[in-house]
Amino acid sequence: MKTKTAAAILTLALMTVSAAGCASDPAPSPTSSTTATDAPSPSRSPTLTPPAADLEDPTTWTVSAEGVGPVKIGGDLASTLSELSDAWQNDPANCSWTAWWQEPGAGYQMYAVRGTESDTAPITEISVNVGGNDPAEPTQSPMTAKGIGLGASKDEVLAAYPGAQEIVAQIGDSTFLMVPGADPAHVFFAFPEGVDAASSVVVTTRSEPSYEVCG
């Protein structure tokens, strides 16, 4: 647009010069004057609001310290499940504190975990985990606002979050990169030993992601 405008101005200027060369100069008018006026300031564009997450499509969900899409840290598990698709499952008899969902192609799973102290304890952990695929070639899944999710390398996480802290898992052989912040929960990226591709993205209020959620 700027190039076309500049070209139009140049053409108009050349036409004006040519016309001036062909016509005789008019006598100056003693009473004429030119009043400069300020160009109107352009109106400010409205702030765009990101589209709401599609409850049926977790690939539209954003991972943050607040949760993953509509599944929020501090939320009520039963109420949350009532708003999600029927593909989310829960086993009241054996693992009532956990709900899970699996991507139709089994590329990744998601878990939401509440406290075990009561049926109304708040959600404290939400995870997105690689399924049967190679972590380095993940299925499209929820990501952070900076586009970091399953399959990200440590360098990619650190480039997006330079302050991320590396933590060695207390159980198992994984290491985590934790994104610092003032919220009660933090975002963790889990890396299995010898693998430079995030196999899990976890939001939790704990000091590190759970080793098991229904063990």
Strand count: 12
Return the string of H and E elements. Answer: HEEEHEEEEEHEEEE
Overall morphology: globular
Count of DSSP helices? 3
> What is the gyration radius calculated from CA atoms?
29 Å
Amino-to-carboxy terminus distance: 61 Å
Low-confidence stretches: 1-50
Rounded average pLDDT: 81
Largest β-sheet summary: 8 strands, antiparallel
Strand content: 25-35%
- How is the largest sheet built, in terms of strand order? 4-5-6-7-12-11-10-9
**Structural class determined from secondary elements:** alpha+beta
Task: Assign a percent range to the helix content.
Answer: 10-25%
What oligomeric assembly is this protein in? single chain
Summary, kept brief:
The chain has 215 residues and is α+β, with helices and mostly antiparallel strands.
Question: Explain this structure to me?
Answer:
The protein is α+β, with helices and mostly antiparallel strands and 215 residues long. The chain has a domain of 147 residues. 16% of the residues lie in helices and 26% in strands. It is built from 3 helices and 12 strands; from the N terminus they run αβββαβββββαββββ. The strands form 2 sheets. Strands 4-5-6-7-12-11-10-9 form an 8-stranded antiparallel β-sheet, with helices on one face.
Keywords:
16% helix, eight-stranded antiparallel β-sheet, 215 residues, four-stranded mixed β-sheet, 26% strand, disordered N terminus, 3 helices, globular, alpha+beta
